[in-house]
Amino acid sequence: MFLLEAQHIKYYVQDRLLLDIDQLQVYKDARIGLVGRNGCGRQRYCKF
User: Fold this and answer.
1) C-beta of residue 2 within 8 angstroms of C-beta of residue 25
2) pTM surpassing 0.85?
3) Which of 12, 14, 32, 43 has the smallest C-beta neighbourhood within 10 Å, fewest atoms?
4) What is the band of 5 on the pLDDT scale with cuts at 50, 70, 90?
């Protein structure tokens, strides 16, 4: 069972492309993580 299903997601902050996802499916009880270099702003952009 999907909790969330989305297609063609693009998320920009100013002129910087942060997310470019063709298809996203999140299942019930799934865990999601953000991966990136130290200091790249993962926590700051979790509020979208």
Assistant:
1) yes
2) no
3) 14
4) very high
Residue 9 bridge partners (DSSP):
21
Retrieve residue 15's tokens. Answer: 């002129």
Burial, 32: exposed, middle or buried (Cβ in 10 Å; 0-12, 13-18, 19+)? exposed
What is the three-class DSSP state of 26? strand
Query: Residues 45, 37: contact at Cβ < 8 Å?
Result: no
The residues spanned by each domain of the chain are: 1-30
d(CA 9, CA 48): 12
3-state DSSP assignment of residue 47: helix
3-state SS, residue 48: coil
